[in-house]
Fold these 2 entries.
Entry 1:
Amino acid sequence: MNMNQSGNRLLAMTVVINGDAVLEYDRSKPLPELQAEYLQRMNQKMGLGIELNGHWLSAPDVMQQAQFVAIQLYQALAQQHDGLAAASTAWLANSLPEIRQIRVEGVKDLMQVESIQVDFVTDREHTPEHRVDLIMPEKKH
């Protein structure tokens, strides 16, 4: 397990969809100036209000903003919009330095959404999951 820390800032954040790591953000690398400016503009826009779960929030807190950005991240991945996915990941990693994983579960696949559940994990780093498919034997009559 990687325990790299700089103060309270964890260095790695992993985006996990249905148990599969799809992105990893390295906080030890400084943001280029243009990306930092873009994240600042994201903060300003969200400060004016966001729509989350069908409700308008005129003054969203950081966790509401994080949920909004995580949904944007998922949509960017589904549409293969690498720039928005990178910006969303950078925003989440820099705005929530305690986050080790963003876990999205319950998605059939990136293009056929059944439902989405987003969890922000702070207590453990991502480790690959080992899944086992169990096949029940047919009953003989």
Note: Residues 62-78 form the longest helix (17 residues).
Entry 2:
Amino acid sequence: MLLSLLSITVLSTPIGPATPTANAGVPWGANGHRIVAAIAERHLLPVTRMRITELVGPYPLARFGEWADKYRASPEGRHTYSWHFVSIPDGEAYPRQPYDEPGDVLQALEYQERILADTSRSVADRAMALKFVVHFIGDMHQPLHVGRAEDRGGNDIDVTWFGTPTNLHSVWDSRMLEFLGLSYSEYTAFLDFATAEQIASWTAGDYVAWAADAMAARPAVYALPEAERGDAQRLGWDYLDAATPIIEAQLLKAGLRLAAVLNRTLGGTSGGE
């Protein structure tokens, strides 16, 4: 059985069409992206590790987890803003459309994976693609980065988090992980206990299927308590207890799926182990 700090919830649901207008914050915060990368590193093949070292040096993948957010904030990286999320209405199908430049996180992952796999490209191009892939797989597992356009992925939903005013997107991006107070290495050690069968199941499918898995968490994400007299919804222990299994499941699956992508792209395999 899969172990976690609380129970792990496995989720699946249909996915709807993309409208890349939701506001992208910093999914999972620094620790969350490091957790995803650190879990992935535990499941890399030796040849994959060697090829990653050839691209970025002998550093842990966790070092590069936040790079794409910092790049997005730079003048040269502003065009990548929409690559961090996709907005999907409830109950509709994600349209697979041709594109020249990526418009959302799913297209960006396909685009950057192709660059990473192309040995005719420069080391610099492939190293940048690797950093994007590490980050974007983390992004797409945060349920509000596969969010609703009408509330900008929860940015327009005011809440209080243990009495502090904020918004729902921020709670899921970083506040819950920060509240739990564990280092990324501690969390990685606590979470990485999937069975071979679970790994095979979770790493099957493609980016669209994985986004559907994240989208399936949205009903729980939006299960907010009644607000009093029009005030912001007050989130505390009950919400945290319900959300923690979802967060843990998404972080673990993101790490395992990242390993699968890197192993097939750089290690020549079709799976994550």
Note: Residues 1-25 have pLDDT under 50 and may be disordered.
